[in-house]
């Protein structure tokens, strides 16, 4: 028989077998739109408005449904009840981190954001313990945030009330707090290395949230063989890791095992303690990835939230006026805000929660996966299946938050004007994979925003009614449009 015919017949059989196995595996999964061979449901998804696409599917298929991104099934959880049941009630089973081609390329299964199994549990436990030892959740870290808030105010004064893009400055402040924990030092806002690092963080956060990146994750061959912005991400990551490695070498040269100065020192000491353990997760490569995870997570998410908050406050000057009145009444103009003030500032607390709810920073949540075969609501979800918990569906629930498309601090206030908690506030996710830095992020948002409003009036470079608060892209992340503003000293 002609070799070409044999080859063609073999390829056809393999493709047929693959499609048959793919089709038969769908029967036990939750229902969903019929996928096309190879490409799955990607033609039915608007990657620029991912959360809206998921909401439309849920109207047809209910709170649990299956999509195919390429050949891989994704089980989507939509709505508070389904997400709470999975992430909290079945917390261990849904505690895996879903894999994506880009995350595997960047983190190679290491660190604390995209790792899994025993490695993840050990690294998360160590990281939480170490961060707490260096003040996270304690008074000492509040002192650091207050000091950085003062530096932030001084930097904003240098703008002299002229129009400026606040992106860089607002990223520097939270980054310096996490730097003090990781590297035992902060950067001057004029430091050129700092400028380069902030630029890379901001660029990566923007690219990783783009529709193009979702396509790269569906068709991994693109990452290795085609040009595109994904290559810029990989280059930025490589350069940031090189910088972290330089810092690690400096720490190794001056390490005192009896007097650890920061996170890197503690990790190096742990590496030394376990150097004879061939199964140890504490390796130099793990250190580089974990530090990069903490550095990036502690910088860009809080910086982006602050940038969005200021945009919303310029759009709603009535809200800003109420905040400044509360600040004047509770703190005054001359005392540094502290965390004790928050309990006496329900309106500020409500505004911060509403900002995080409204901006919906990570609409589909960070991918999860199930750690074992599990029967969930009468469906069999195989071990390793990727899960999308649609946090957007919870943060925009119209029963819990009337008119969710509207920015309204009243969503978190009762009839007496007191702060009202909501179980639907899942801006930091929920369950065993809840954000490690939630407490620090909440502290930073309160102290930074309160301090800014204590010292400045906010003025938009355009008429407030022309301010666009819609996100640039609502794929993996929601980012505000670039804007200019003025900080007017009061």
From TrEMBL:
Keyword Metal-binding: yes
SUPFAM superfamilies recorded: Cytochrome P450
EC top class, as a word: oxidoreductase
GO molecular function term, any single one: iron ion binding
InterPro entries: Cyt_P450 (IPR001128), Cyt_P450_CS (IPR017972), Cyt_P450_E_grp-I (IPR002401), Cyt_P450_sf (IPR036396), Cytochrome_P450_fam2 (IPR050182)
Cellular compartments per GO CC: endoplasmic reticulum membrane
Keyword hit for Phosphoprotein: no
Enzyme Commission number(s): 1.14.14.1
Pfam families assigned to the protein according to its UniProt record, in alphabetical order: p450
Membrane topology: Peripheral membrane protein
Localization per record: Endoplasmic reticulum membrane; Microsome membrane
Positions contributing to heme binding: 435
Signal peptide (residue range): 1-25
Keywords: Endoplasmic reticulum, Heme, Iron, Membrane, Metal-binding, Microsome, Monooxygenase, Oxidoreductase, Signal
Cofactor(s) demanded: heme
GO term, biological process aspect, one: xenobiotic metabolic process
Family the UniProt entry places it in: Belongs to the cytochrome P450 family.
Listed name of the protein: unspecific monooxygenase
Originating gene: LOC109674576
